[in-house]
Task: structure prediction
Amino acid sequence: MMLAADAVFSTDLPLPGRRQGKVRDVYGLPGRTPPALLVVATDRVSAFDVVMPTPMPGKGRLLTQVSLGWFHWLREQRLVADHVLSTDVPAECLQDRALAASLAGRVMQCRAARVIPIECVARGYLAGSGWAEYQRHGTACGIALPKGLRQCDQLPEPIFTPATKAEEGHDENISPTQAQESLERDPVWSRFGGRALAQRLERITIDLYARAAAHARSRGVILADTKFEFGLALDGQGQPTDELLIVDEVLTPDSSRYWPADRYEPGRDQPSFDKQVLRNWLLDEVAAGRWNKEAPGPALPESVVELTLERYREIARILT
Result:
């Protein structure tokens, strides 16, 4: 077991333009043509859109390992280009040996892109927020579903359930029509097709999900749902082009819901290879009145950290 002292919770690299997401730190890479970024997968963990104060040592390397395996697979599909250029630690960080060692295995040098502000979610099974909405309204993100479905039932066909991208706070599920209208109204995205761009994202998302789910199933794993992010590659002047890229992570246990196929039984929660252990513990904290799903998150017990990491290790072994 790795110690918390080995974890990378945050970075401060000798590179410009530092930005922090929930899990990743992003920097500019000066002097690269076309423009490039360094994406660092830290050992932070988030749940319910809140970053927890306790790191999970080695999680960033596991996420990078899984993501890179899927990026390799994705290139074979020839559906959309991706942003990965290299997995090398950049030259600017090599002089400090300890720093370079902490970054090894958790960085990707990537094409810079203007990220499209829509989370592209594909669902093949009725779980999570989709199940919660279905119980109330018979829909998932406004999409009408057949009556009588059980928790975690496979849907008749995969559905596209986008969400808004929130810089802070909680993302919000929206309908495919709302996603189209959002890009159509925005002057930045209307220049690149707006509604047609949103429809293209929907087609690619569903196609990628269907292919990835079949591949995962061949490894004995059900891919219940997943989230993709896309952007338009930047040119030498830093302006968006019409080259669509899939960006960020792909098909990791942070962005996807994985279940063991041999233990699948609809009508209940499924054992999972993602951070459901963490979510369940947090829900118990909410039920006990010790947390309200808002920042800051509670400190995590060692048992929850290790059990969650074990799920990450197992799915990395199965998929890669």
About this structure: The mean pLDDT is 94. Residues 195-218 form the longest helix (24 residues). The helical segments are 59-77, 97-103, 128-137, 176-185, 187-190, 195-218, 276-287, 302-319. The longest strand covers residues 221-234.
